[in-house]
Amino acid sequence: MNSVRFIGSSSPLNDIQTATIEECAAYCKTKTVLGVDTETEGFDFTCKKMIMLQIGDRERQYVIDTRVVDITLLKPILESHDIIKIFHNAKFDYKFIKKWAGISVEEIYDTFLVERVINCGKQDYGYSLAKCVERYLGVTLNKETRSKFIGLKGQPFTVDQITYGANDVVYLLDIRQNQLGLLHTYELEQTARLENKVVKVFSEIEYEGLAIDKDKWTVMAENNVKLAHEQSIKLDDMVLAHPLLQHYNIPVQVDMFAPMEDIRHTHINWGSPTQTLELFKNLEPKLEDVNGKKLNKYRYKHKLIDEYIRYKERTKLANAYGTKFFNYVNSDGRVHTNFSQILDTGRVSSSKPNMQQIPSDNTFRNCFIAPQGWVFVSSDYSSQELNVIAYGSKDPVWLDALTRGLDLHGVCADLVFEDKWRNADPDARKKLRTQIKAINFGLAYGMGPFKLADTLQISKSDAEALIEKYFTEFPNIRDFLQTLGTFGTRNGYIRTFKPFKRRRWFDTWFPKIWNDRSMFQEFGSIERASKNTPIQGSSADMTKLALIYIHREIQESWFDTVKIVMTVHDQIDCVCREDVAEAWAVRMTELMEKAAKVIIPNGLLKADTNISRTWEK
């Protein structure tokens, strides 16, 4: 207890020493590494307050009651680039510290993110502070004490709560020390540095949020409900006209007071998978369910099934993006998503709401608006993953097409289909180009003949023949992918491109997996992921680096005129004061392309930057 210093209106026990915020600042400013943690009233930083801040090192930990103590004196320390601040899940603490203390933390080391970097790809490994403390230090945290911070309001902290908060600081330093050795062993220092730099940017994006035009969204939502209803009527009419489905022709009046034109002539509930499956079995007796791939392969065989899939798509839009979406609008009138910074490939996802799944149709995105006098400046990479494949494979045709600015899909189609392409009319060419495009982009996802057959609605044998012909024309790409697949299946992990060399582990791998026939399914999964991860992961590394460059530039030169508000895979979105938008668009493009050259030095990957009043694809 001698190492703990409590800063508040009073100490709960005499054996916990008290201190002042001045003493805390004086001690901390002499350090190069500090552990930092917070306790809060809840999870929503826009309306729940930070009630405790803990900061210190192994020798001394300061526990500050932020309900009664102003921590402004810690601003130079928390914003210093010379002092490393260790957090666990830094985004959470960052937003509360900025909201309730006006401090933007710099030089972050996040033990949560680093643990994800070290163990990327390992399922159910456990990345919580409790799991890390147990794994590295052999200590079991008392969850009951942590839960008692919720709803505390004005009650004084107990000695257990103060001790708990102080211990968290020490745990963070000890976890980091263990992680540094593993980062060195696996050559992951650069990846960890990337993630620790970009976490501040994701924190700022979540903090800033996106404003939404509720009236515009409501009109769109009502239209989606109308379209879904119209699609259900269309399905009813198709059932009535189908010779195998006449037994469904039973008038059903949904409302006894409804007009005659609203009387349905089938009793099928299109929202019921069970009823819909029963109906479709009249067309395809072997059909097992009405979800996903099993149904999708019949959509071009039966027009009714094709229209049902359209109904599901419209219903999903009506449900997911109806007025219930307003539940995600916080007390400040903005939508604040939550990013998961590291998926297995290194890609980013978002949730509550998932802004990355907002349909790219600008009907939806245009509902998100810039402040008065500001505009969106959005930049995205042009064919990012195709450029990664071209660079990795060194394929001369791809590189030449990208260098000359040609239509890569058209160039590939010309080589694969030859006279069939050259003699085709515009509609036929469009279909052939679509097939090649499916392969080109499918390479980034480890696509095989089954997936290609499903995507293009062709037979598996035709898909195999198409892939074989494709790789005959592009042997460099074939060899590149095979090399990746072989490396992953033989080593149990795969890496992204230099300089970051992010590592993804494969949990189901064992040393002789390629010789074990019983592991055929796992082998195939590892092989596909080994082809996919370097492409997707290197693209993700690039976008994260671009976020860092752009954010640093804003801090140094555009602080009051530009803010990063969103990122979706290869696109970064800013809001910018209208009078500097043109100049910022030029600078943003330069920074995007600067980041691209770190991973693809040939300079072929370009960025497209646009200015708009609303969020756009």
Strand content: 5-15%
- CATH topology-level fold name of the largest domain: Nucleotidyltransferase, domain 5
What is the name of the CATH superfamily of the largest domain? Answer: Ribonuclease H-like superfamily/Ribonuclease H
Described by strand count, sense and barrel closure, the largest sheet is: 7 strands, mixed
Give me the secondary-structure category: alpha+beta
Question: What does the radius of gyration come to?
Answer: 28 Å
> What is the total tally of β strands?
20
Strand order, largest beta sheet: 2-1-5-4-3-6-7
| Low-confidence sequence ranges | 256-261
Indicate the percent of residues in helices.
Answer: 40-55%
Number of domains: 4
Mean of all residue-level pLDDT scores: 90
Mass-distribution shape = globular
Helix count equals 23
- CATH class categorisation of the largest domain: Alpha Beta
